[in-house]
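Issue: ligand-bound run for 6-O-phosphono-alpha-D-glucopyranose - logging full I/O for the record.

Environment: standard queue, default settings, no custom constraints.

Inputs:
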Amino acid sequence: MPWSVVNDGDGMPRIILTEPSGSSAEVLLYGGQVVSWKNDRREELLFMSSKAVLKPPKAIRGGIPICFPQFGNLGSLEQHGFARNRLWAMDSCASPLPPPKNQSTIDLILKSQEEDIKTWPRSEVRVEGLETLDYFDNLIKRERFTEQADAITFDGEVDRVYLSTPGKIAIIDHEKKRTLVLRKEGLPDAALWNPWDKKAKALPDFGDEDFQVMLCLDSAAVENPITLKPSEEWMGRQELSTVLSSYFSGQLDPRQVLAGK
Ligand SMILES: O=P(O)(O)OC[C@H]1O[C@H](O)[C@H](O)[C@@H](O)[C@@H]1O
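Outputs:
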């Protein structure tokens, strides 16, 4: 029997995973928290407070809590984020993780709740094609950094100029299930901007909540400005298009993005 679900006295579902060796683990849907892990000698390996309260509304003291989307008070949300104070659900969809080697597993999912979307707004949008590039950060005195993320997502103010970008950059909106592609020529750089909440409030002609439904991606020539001599010509162009829905489900192939295909 890989796992079973029991209800605690107060109705909190608890999933018990067992191994033929006798080792076991227990996970509560409350917080998605592992509250017990026993070895094959049935010895408890996790600490649980003797005063732990295994039900809402407070976080459970002990076991393996999930601190998300922030750790401690490093953010605007409650201590360690909301994930450990929510009821998770069993996820019936296939796990994106590699299959375990004959071990008991259970996939849990934390679905977005309206209250969390309000306090932790995410526009579910990513920009692909700027990964690994250098950029000037206009928020840090135009200092030069190298992008470390696989794709750019937004969880705060962004004001950057990415340098020598590929000719194609994609904006993928998972929520609206649409992808926009920016193709450009003659404009090597790309500016990316979202003012986020505080700056949005400070801009007189920008709605307080508008930052949740926009991002600004400009084709640009910033690092090496284009200077024309009299009667010299220069051409720059950008083209915006939508692409097929098959792009929604997966990522764009980064090699193809870099090749501008
Ligand atoms: O009391 P909690 O919110 O569960 O946090 C318990 C502890 O978690 C982490 O280890 C933090 O670094 C500590 O500062 C915090 O006291």
